[in-house]
Amino acid sequence: MPPPYFRPIRPSAGFPTVRAMDTGVFAGQEAENRYRAVYREVWATCPEPDEVLDVPTSFGPTRVYRFGSVGESLVLLPGMAATAAGWGAELARYADGHTVYAVDTLGEPGLSVQTAPIRTAVDRGLWVHEVVAGLGLARAHLVGASTGGWHATAAAVHAPQRVASVSLLDPTAVTVGFGFGVLWRAPLTRVLGWEWFLRWAGPGEDFRLVLAGIAEYRARPAPQVPFGDALRPVRVPVLAIFGRHSTVHNGERAARRMREFVPHAEVEVWECGHRIDAAERVARFVRRFGA
Fold first, then answer.
1. pLDDT confidence of 221, banded at 50, 70, 90?
2. Among 63, 51, 55, which residue's Cα sits nearest to residue 105?
3. What's any one GO cellular component for it (predicted)?
C-alpha cells in the first residue's frame, strides 16, 4: 500500500464543481493511476517530507510537502508539470536552516485538485496568496523555478501582502516572452514527441514525471504573458537569476528587462542553461530579509 500522502484526495463539499474544460483534470481514472505510479517512483528519490498538507484555496485543495521546522519559511514553486518532486535532492539543501513548503502547482499534474479555473495572472497570484495563508504563515519567501517564477511574480505583483521576498530561477515569461527556439520547436512535438523537446530544453534532467503529466493530464493553465510595466510597483525584495545559455528565452535580455522594471532587484546572469541550482544563493538572500 502506498504511503498516505500518495493516496487520492478529493475536494470537500465546500468546493464548487465546474466543467472539466475549465480546470485541469486527468484524462480518466486509468490515466490518473498510471501517473500516480510514476509520481511514487520519482518521489522515492526525494527526501522524506516531515509533513504532508492539502491546503484549501478558492481554486481547490493544494498539495504541499513540508521539510524542516526552523528558520524562515520558504515556499517552493516548481517548473511546469515538475511538481514538488522536481526539486529532488535540493529539497534537503533548501531545508538546511529553513522551513520549506514544496508545492504541487494547482492546475498542473500532481496531487493538487483544481475545482475552479485559474484564467489570469491575478488568479494565479491570489492562489499563491491563499496557499501561504492556508499554511498559517504571515509571510513567506517565494522561490520559483521556470514557470514557478511566473507564479511567484504574479503574487508579488497582484497579492504581495504575504510575500517576504521572491527568488526567481530563470523564470519564464516574466520580463520577456519565450525564445525563437521554443516557438519553432513546439509544433514539432506533434511529430517528434515531448521527450525530444524536453531533452533539448533541459539536457540531463529526469523528465519522467513531466512526461507522465503531459500524457495523462489535461492542464488548463493561465496564459503566461510578460508583466511589463506591472512590475514597476513591486516593492518586495527580488533575486532574479537567469541562465546565459537558457534554451527558453534570451537570458541576458530577460535580465536587462528585469533591471529596467525592478531597479532594486538583485539580478544575476549565470553561465548555465535553463536549469539553475541555487539553494545556497537563495539562502544567503533570504537571510537578509527575514519575514
1. confident
2. 63
3. membrane
Please check whether residue 219 is in contact with residue 108, taking contact to mean a CB–CB distance below 8 angstroms: yes
Contact 225, 173 (CB under 8 A): yes
Q: Is the pTM of this model over 0.85?
A: yes
Domains of the chain, earliest start first: 16-287 (3.40.50.1820)
Record the cell numbers describing residue 279, joined without a space. Answer: 539553494
Quickly count: other Cβ atoms within 10 Å of residue 37's Cβ. Answer: 12
Which phi and psi (to 5°) does residue 75 adopt?
Answer: -110, 115
Percent of the chain with pLDDT over 70: 82
The conformational region for residue 68 under phi > 0 = left, psi -120 to 50 = alpha, else beta, is left
- pLDDT of 59 strictly over 60: yes
Cα separation, 219 vs 55, in Å, equals 20
Question: Measured between alpha carbons, how far is 31 from 142 in angstroms, rounded to an integer?
Answer: 31
Does residue 134 contact residue 55 with C-beta atoms inside 8 Å? yes
Average pLDDT over residues 190-215: 62
CA gap 270, 257 in Å, rounded: 16
Question: What confidence tier does 5 reach under pLDDT thresholds 50, 70, 90?
Answer: very low
Spatial CB neighbours of 114, under 8 Å, sequence gap ≥ 6: 23, 24, 25, 59, 60, 106, 107, 220
